[in-house]
Design goal:
The strands form 3 sheets. A two-stranded antiparallel sheet has the order 1-2. It starts with a strand and ends with a strand. A hairpin with a 6-residue loop joins strand 1 and strand 2. Helix content is 56%, strand content 6%. It is mainly alpha-helical and 357 residues long. Among the domains are: 80 residues, no CATH class; 103 residues, no CATH class. The longest helix is centred in the middle third of the chain and has 16 residues.
Length: 357
């Protein structure tokens, strides 16, 4: 059935309607198509034969070589590439055409040589403000898709979990930043951005929202405990190791040895009980540490004792009697020689616990 077609003017059957046959009716091929829009000039079988013969002729090696040579000569003509570029810029694709181009290019992998050529051709070119805006809008729309975001997160996790990946990235970034002076540039950009009121407001809101989450607060608490319990951190950040150290004048009139460590050690030695009335103030507040000889610079363990607020207030009157009575108590209980404060580990809470040997 597809071997012949019928002429819609005279009703004859032919393999194809030639120009000679159409001239007998006073028509050209274009006029015939306009008169009969659904009519065909060649039968389907003949059309397939012509197509197969044309493909065979085009794919011959000598024909392909001639075509390549001719195209190179055409593209190497002076000004030809510029004309094509101008013509393509003026050409605007429809939305359907753009979609088809996007689908055809999706998943296509370029060779290393093609990527290098594209990089060289784009080097030094600057996009216009309109082009940058379009690129930004397209990127935001693409990255906002849930499936794209999930793929990117999975790929980044897989890449960063690869052994040695973090060290490689750190080395490359250091080299790049030092080569192009990015440290100074980024520092200037950040400083300028921090001065903008809208940036400061957004940063403040973001930090408050982040720090108020329970899981974030728990992580911060754990990290702070680990940091401050590390050997040498407290000593390195206190006294001479601190940049705010001014010789200990903030503790006057007490001596430098009379710090929180010393107070905790005395309370632990006295079992957190007032040594006069036997009261335990731990549910309410910590016990006071009293200097027996009223010399605030003498912070030896034999001169310090734990007292509650009430008993500590009583020692401000009749000082000589209190001094004699407390010294006798210390001599009877601990001896006259001052005992050094030793820091030991607390196995229950993982926090420092101070005791006396």
């Amino acid at each position: 059935m597809d071997e012949y077609i019928q002429c819609l003017v005279c009703g004859g059957r032919f393999h194809g309607l030639t120009n000679t046959h159409l001239l007998r009716h006073g028509l050209t091929p274009c006029q015939y198509r306009k008169r009969f829009p659904v009519a065909k000039l060649v039968s389907p079988k003949t059309s397939r034969k012509i197509s197969a013969a044309a493909k065979e002729a085009i794919n011959r090696p000598e024909v392909l070589a001639k075509r390549r040579t001719a195209m190179k000569e055409i593209w190497n003509r002076p000004g030809y590439r510029a004309k094509i570029s101008v013509a393509r810029r003026a050409l605007k694709h429809s939305a359907e055409t753009k979609r088809k181009i996007s689908v055809s290019l999706r998943g296509k992998k370029l060779s290393a040589e093609t990527k290098r050529k594209i990089s060289v051709s784009r080097r030094g070119k600057k996009h216009s403000a309109e082009t940058k805006r379009k690129i930004s809008a397209a990127s935001k729309e693409y990255l906002s898709r849930p499936e794209v975001h999930a793929k990117m997160v999975a790929a980044q996790k897989k890449a960063w979990d690869r052994p040695g990946r973090r060290a490689e990235a750190s080395t490359v970034l250091r080299e790049v930043w030092s080569r192009f002076g990015y440290h100074e540039k980024m520092s200037a950009v950040f400083k300028e951005a921090q001065k903008r009121p809208e940036v400061r407001v957004r940063k403040s809101i973001a930090m408050k929202e982040s720090n108020n989450r329970p899981e974030v607060r728990a992580k911060i608490s754990i990290s702070n405990r680990v940091y401050w319990n590390h050997p040498g951190v407290r000593e390195g950040r206190s006294r001479e190791g601190s940049g705010c150290w001014r010789g200990g004048i903030s503790r006057l009139p007490y001596g430098l040895e009379f710090d929180n460590k010393c107070k905790k050690a005395i309370r632990c030695r006295d079992n957190h009980l007032c040594q006069v009335c036997g009261r335990d103030n731990r549910p309410c507040r910590l016990l006071c540490i009293h200097h027996i000889d009223y010399d605030k610079q003498n912070s030896e363990c034999g001169n310090l004792i734990s007292l509650c607020d009430s008993c500590h207030g009583k020692t401000n009157s009749n000082r000589e009697e209190w001094r004699k009575e407390l010294q006798a108590f210390m001599k009877e209980t601990y001896g006259l020689d001052p005992q050094p404060c030793i820091v030991v580990a607390n196995p229950l809470k993982g926090l420092p616990l101070f005791a006396i040997n």
